[in-house]
Structure formats: structure tokens, C-alpha cells
Amino acid sequence: MTRPTPQRRLSMPKLTRRLTNIVIHDDDLELVPASTVPSTPTHEKLQDEYLDQWGKALEQSPLANQQTDVASLQASIAYHMNASLFRTQHNLEKVAVYQALAHSMADKLLLDWNRTQQRYRKDNPKRVYYLSMEFLLGRALDNAMLALHMKTAYQEAVQGLGFRLEDLLEQERDPALGNGGLGRLAACYMDAAAALDLPMWGYGLRYQYGLFRQSVQQGFQVEAPDDWLMRHHPWEFPRDIKYDVQFYGYVATKMNDKGESRLFWESDHKIRAVAYDVPVPGKDGFCGNIRLWASQPPHHGGFDLDAFNQGNYDQSIASLKDAFLLTSVLYPNDNHQAGKELRLKQEYFFVSASVQDVVHRFKRYRCPWSEFPNKVAFQLNDTHPTLAIPELQRILVDVEGLAWDDAWDIVTRTFAFTNHTVLPEALEKWPIYVMEKVLPRHMQIIYDLNLFFLQKVEEKFPGDRDLLNRVSIIEEASPQQVRMAFLAVVGSHSVNGVAALHSELVVKELFNDFSLYYGKDKFINITNGISPRRWLYQANPGLRDLITHTLGSEDWVADLPQLQKLAPFADNLEFQQQWMAIKYANKVRLTQWIRDDCGLTVDPRALFDIQVKRMHEYKRQFLNILGVIHRYRVLLQMSPEARRRVPPRVVIFGGKAAPGYAIAKLVIKLINSVADVVNNDPVIDDHLKVVYLPDYNVSLAEKIVPASDISQHISTAGTEASGTSNMKFVINGGLILGTVDGANIEIRDEIGEDNIFLFGTLADQVADIRHAQKYHGVLLDANLQSVLDAIQAGVFGDASIFNPLIDTLTYGGDFYLISEDFDAYIKRQNDVDALFLQKAAWAAKSIRCTAGMGFFSSDRSIGQYASRIWKVDKTALGNGSTSTAD
Ligand code: NBG
Q1: Measuring CA to CA, which residue among 170, 153, 169, 165 is closest to residue 74?
Q2: Domains, the chain, ordered by start
Q3: Preceding peptide of 479 cis, ω within 30°
Q4: Cα separation of 235 and 145, whole Å?
């Protein structure tokens, strides 16, 4: 193994601080190095004098005196129509009314935001920073109105102005700043933190274009840019907070005033990060924050001034483009982002701006650096923000002049890391030559960290060179790579997986060597959760009202285990009828959406069988559609009487495939080709319909989730870290058909084995089966073989298109074990049919599903993060105190 050469180590003496990176900062205090700050700076004194007056002025302002009666709400909407949008009542479109309404609502949030943030600022509690490249927020207006208990009043207000609130809500564009579960989890966690009054901020990127918009043409996915900011977006607030982030350049050794040698990272290539704050409505006047960074050219820096002076404008602005481009697009998560320099620059841009901002905030209070871990907790949402680790080390050592070891102690007590996948292709690695070019100083720091880490491993396990190779942050491949997940583990005090099985696999497989070295305590499980506010209270008003009526109050929203009190009603026929009437109404609503969106009429009395999630081989939408073909063939062979005994089904798919993921895109094509045939087969009629809902996103999910009878979560065992849509469906009384994988397992434990349809290979059998397949080939299930024969015979159009897909089963060794699980899957689907015919038994299970879901509230998850990882004492919040147990 090549051992890295240490760059420079140990006691870096304190220097005259360099703060070149920080250029403009938020509000009051000018950022000055702690040692040079006079004890009572003049500008602070001045502020104190006027502070009260500002407070009084605000209390007198229209912002603080907002009334919530219908006439006042109408006045505020009309005001914004004229003052914010510069329109009059003679020029009203729904979208404009939506925007005026959103402004009116945002005013109320703003006030809460200011009060909450002022309180934090004054109390200075330990704060949590959730670093995530993705926040899949979904629409804001409905959520905000419900959080502030203003929906009914606004409904009346807009009605009096000639509009229906539901129509206006549909005008809002989803900010799709995420790919799927990981980004939506971040949004649910911000929502929970806001509800719990936990001082947590999200940090992320404000992509100009979110995840692409998907349409389907001739059955194929077609991507278009998601220009979500095309229209004014009233839910973000640009701030005068800016930091410069540098790239490339070189590392120089310089002498400081004391004649000591120091390393400096120098570069002329800078891009400016500007902050946009997104309020997160909480409860009782509390409002959280997500700070998103957008890229801009630095002051003057982007211009070629010589060219500018000569009037050569084209040339002078050429490099401006680069700066704006940096945060223009969200990368879809496929295998192609690895190695992309722009993605690496996005990651660094994001963490550098965020860490600078946090350091700036910390320094306001003039605490010693040793206090940093008592005031700051960083949570890394997957490996994407891992560069924050060497970045903080760099700032502490190079800029703040701390000794290396002191700095590292602070870093490792501050960071914690959540792993969200065990799939090797999703674990980020960066080629060293890219890292060295883009971030030369960070590469040196990583080498040093690695060296010191390996030395310690060697001390503990002397002579085990293989082990050193295995745990090295630098992978000795060609080209050499930085293993970001390993860097995250080494730089964090806690590593967690997102469901029990996943966390077990994280320790047993992914980080086994690390758990031997660090001990098991560093590796914990915190099972994911979902926001009951968005995913039940908001998405399913019918069920919400029934639950509230039955339980006597809305307290269950903040205390989800109270849902258990529904269980005694499971066998009550009247309650079952009310329950299923709500499900039916939700299905009718989805039916209308399907008609408008796909031009397809489906019967809401049919069994709605839904699989909506990103398209990926491990999630096995392929298994689902193969099962549909099997069902189609069986139905065709049946007599009309026999067919009538099978409950009619509507099989609904939705989800985007990464643009470069050819196989996933072929599955979309196959689904649509099957739909074409099945939906137009007169023999089949309404017995089976297949729907592919294009452009699946959060707001569509809110319509789909409450309308499922069955939803499918059928990943190959051991591949789905958790899944969160499974939780959303079950809490809405949808049963699930799933594999023994991810959070399905804990859902089973909570709701009871009888209320879930599980099937298939277990995680600990997968390796053996794959091994056997390698030697003996794949023995295709007979039913599956005839399904494949039908595809290859051209029943669903040009068969040759599908060859690469079929090859994944036959020549590819069936890595995802579709053939292995096919028979069990079909049998379980038959069980689903049989139960659906027994209306009362089905209803009872549906009720028990909801009743058992108390554990899966995001409030529980965030509570666990707070107490087990961040050591933020939730109950002591609000008066500013925090535990300092770490
Ligand atoms: C995803 C997993 C899901 C999990 C979410 C949230 C990534 C890398 N991982 O199973 O695939 O529910 O994270 O934890 O997107």
C-alpha cells in the first residue's frame, strides 16, 4: 500500500487571522477576529440604543398587526395583488391570485420566522445544521395555511373574491430540489424540527432547475428542464448574506508575523454564494429555516476588466457564465454523476458557504473554539456534504490558527453522518486527480487525516496490512479515489443507518472494519419517519377529520402513537363503512386526476394497486409489470364467469428514471406498452387497467397516497435502505405488498404480521442465491418464462426494444432476483385478491394499519437524533438551554 506523505502536521501556531473568504455578512455584527474585538464595540452600543425603538416600530407595523378575519385577509390579498405583483383586479389569472395569496400567507410566516430566529440569537442554544444537497419540499401554501390554522379563513376569503381555494393551490409549482426519498426525508425532518421547536437549520442549494420534468411520448420517458423559478416564487427570501468560495489554485507555504511557516490556499477563481431563506412553518408561532445557496460571480471578479474597458463585452462576461452555471441544475442520481467536476464543485460550494456561515454565527458570541461542539452539530445527509469535514479542519487550522489535533477534536465532535444506501454505485468516490485540481488544499488535508487515521489503526491492529488497505480513505485503484463514505465515518462521532435492517448491514457489510476499530457504539440506527402533518393531516382531510372526531382532539398529530386508539374500532362495522367511504372518495379524486392527466377512465371500485417511486432496478418495477403481464394472460384464459370472480384492478405506476439509466427507462416503456395493449383489450375490459402517471412529484404523491388499496415496496431484500413511501401509504390505511426489506420489516412489527403482505427472499439468503446463479445459471420460473415469451413474441409491440431488459434476467444473472421471487410474488398477489373480496376483513386491516403507525412519525426520528446524536435536549428548548453531554 502506498503511504501518503504527510503534508504538515501538528501545532499550527495562531496567526493573524485571515478572513478573506467572508465578504459580506448578515445583519448586525461586523465579523472581526475574536482577539481583536474590543469588549464593547461602538457599533453594538449604538445598536442597543435604538434596539427598543426598532422593536416598538415593528410592533406598530402592519406586519405585526395582521388580522385573521376574512375581510382583513381579503385586504391583504388585494394589497399584494397591487403592491407585490403590480396588477389590478382587471388583470387577474388564477396564478396571480395564488401568488397574492401566497404573499399574504408568507407575511405571517415572516413574522414568526423573525421572532423565532431572534429568540435563538438571544438564547444562543446549541444548534443543529442539517446539510443536504437535496430538499424535496413540495408545495408550501397549503402546508403553511394548515400549520397556522388559517385554511378555513383563507378559503372563505378567496371564495368571496371569486376563486376556489383548491384551484389556486394547484397553481403552485413544486420546488423539486431533490431526487426522491433522501430529499423528501430532509424536508420531513425540517418540518418535524419546526414542529418541535428544535433549533435546526437546513442548508442546501438553490438549483435554478429542479429534477427534470417527465412526460411520456410513444411510451418513452422524455425529459424537459424544470424551470420552477420561471414565475416569481413567494416562499423564499433573498438575503444580503454572501460568501466567496474558491476553487483550483495552489497551496503556498508562507511565514507569519512570528516567523512560523503556514499553508495558504490561494486562488483567483472565486464564486460567490448568496443566501435564500425558506421558512418552515412550525407550531405555535415557531418557524424554522432552510438556507439555500445560489451561485453568482464575485464582485467584479467575474468580469474580464481589461476586455470590459475596451468595450469588448462578449469576452468580458464569458466567465460570468461559469458562476451562474454552478447551481443551475440538480444532478439526477444515477451512475453518471461520479467523476463530474461540476458536481464536485457544487458539493464544495455548498459546504464551504454553509460552514463559513456557521463559523461566522459561532464567532458572534466570542466563545472559545473548544465550545464549538457544544454549540454546533452538523448532520451529513449522506456523503454529498462530506467535504464539510476537511473544510472545517482547513478553516480551523489554516485560517483560525488552531493546532491540528485540537482542530480535529473539534471537527469529530461536531459531525455526524447518516448513510442512506448500501448500493456500491451510490457510494461516492472522487478521483484524486480531480480533487487535487479543484481543491488542492483539501486533498492535502485528506491525505494527512488518512495517514493519522491509518497510524492509529495500525497501533490497534499491528501488522494487518490488508486491513489498512481496506479502511484507507484513499482507494488504491486506478485512478486512485477518495472514498467519501470512509471520510465521513472517520470525521464523524456517530454514523447511522435509516432502518433496523439497513443499520445492521451498514455495520456488517459496509463499515465492518470501522466498527471493529471504533467499537459498535459509534454505529446506531435511527429509523426514518414521515411528517404526519403533510402525509395525513394535509393529504387526507377526510381521514384526518374522522380520526380527530374519533379520538376527540387533534392531539394525535403531535403524539402519533395515539393512533393506536383507533384499533378498538377495527371491527366496528359502522366505523369500517365511514373509513372505507373516505378511501373511496380519495380513489374518486385520483380517478379524476387519471382521467385529466392520462385520458383514461378507471373505475374507483376496482382495487387500486400502486407503485410510485424512482425507477431503479433494485426497486423492481420490472417484477411488478411482469406480474401484470402474467395476470393479463391468466385473465384472458379464464371464462367470463371466472374472470368476474377476480376483483378488477387498476395498477398504477409513477416515477422518474435518471436520464442516463437506459434499463430503468426501458421499464417505463414496457409499462406503457403493456398499458396500451391491456387497456384496449375488449375481453379484459375493466378487469385490469394499467396507468403510468407522468411527472411523479410530491404534490402528485399527496393525491396518490391516500387512494391506495395496496401499494408495492418490493425491492430485492437488503437493497432498500428504508423506504418512506411505505410509511405514507400505511398511515393512510393502505395495505402493502412488500419484501422483507428496509422499513417494511419494522412496519410489520408495528402493525402486525396479519396486516401486511410480505413475500420473497430474505436479505441473508441473497448472497448465496447469487453465488449459485453464477455457477449454475438462472433457472427461470415457468410462469415468468411464458411472460417473457409473450414479450418476445411481440404481444406488446416491437420485441427487439426490450431485449436489453430481458437480458438482465437471462444473461445478466438476474442480479435483483426477479425470477427467484416471481412465484412468491404472484401467490401473494392472489392473497391480495382474495382478501379484497372480503370487504369487512379488508377494512379491519386498513384501520389496523393506520392505528399501528405511531412509531413512524418524523417527530420520533428527530427526537432520537436530538437526544442520541446531537445531544440537544428538546424539552429544555425555548428557554435556550441545551445539554452539553457530548
Ligand atoms: C434513499 C434510500 C431509501 C431511503 C431514503 C431516505 C438514497 C441514497 N437513499 O430507501 O434508497 O428511504 O434514502 O433515507 O437516495
Answers
A1: 153
A2: 532-856 (3.40.50.2000)
A3: yes
A4: 13
Pocket test residue of 182, 337, 428, 530 for ligand 1, highest count of atoms within 8 A of CB: 182
Please write the tens of the pLDDT for every residue from 220-262.
999 999 999 988 899 999 999 999 999 999 999 987 666 777 7
H or E element in which residue 346 lies: helix 341-363
The answer to whether residue 294 scores a pLDDT higher than 60 is yes
Task: Determine whether the shortest distance from the Cβ of 172 to ligand 1 is under 6 A.
Answer: no
User: Is 724 assigned a catalytic role?
Assistant: yes
CB 727 within 8 A of CB 529: yes
Identify the CA nearest to 744 among candidates 498, 491, 432. 498
Q: How far is Cα of residue 868 from the mean position of the Cα atoms in its chain?
A: 21
Candidates 420, 483, 689, 828; catalytic one: 420
Residue 210's beta-bridge partner residues?
Answer: 226
From the candidates 363, 442, 534, 614, give the one annotated as an active-site residue. 614
CA distance 492 to 386: 10
Cα end-to-end distance, the chain, whole Å: 36
| Long-range pairs for 760-763: beta carbons < 8 A, 24 or more residues apart | 760/714, 760/717, 760/817, 760/820, 760/821, 760/824, 760/825, 761/716, 761/717, 761/817, 761/820, 761/821, 762/717, 763/501, 763/505, 763/717, 763/718
pLDDT mean over 834-853? 98
User: Does 619 qualify as catalytic in the annotation?
Assistant: yes
Please tell me the predicted confidence (pLDDT) of residue 629: 98
Range of lowest pLDDT (1-10, 58-67, 826-835): 1-10
Distance CA 637, CA 635 (A): 5
Catalytic site includes residue 613 = yes
In sequence order, which ranges of 171-214 are alpha helices (DSSP H)? 181-196
Whole-prediction pTM value?
Answer: 0.93
Residue 645 bears catalytic tag: no
Confidence of residue 303 (pLDDT cuts 50, 70, 90): low
Q: What is the grid cell recorded at 101?
A: 395569496
Can you tell me which atom of ligand 1 is nearest the CA of 528? 14
In which residue are the cell numbers 474585538 written? Answer: 37
Residue 496's Cβ-side half-sphere holds a number of Cα atoms within 13 Å equal to 23
Q: Which residue's alpha carbon is nearest to atom 9 within ligand 1?
A: 420
**Residues 768, 718: Cα–Cα separation, whole Å:** 13
706 CA → ligand 1 middle, Å: 22
Strand 127-131 and strand 376-381: the pairing is parallel
- Checking if the pLDDT of 98 tops 60, the result is yes
| Residue indicated by cell numbers 501545532 | 11
CB contact at 8 A, 323 and 274:
no
Which atom of ligand 1 is least distant from the CA of 184? Answer: 6
312 confidence band (pLDDT: 50, 70, 90): confident
Distance 181 CA to ligand 1 centre (A): 5
Q: What is the reported pLDDT for 716?
A: 98
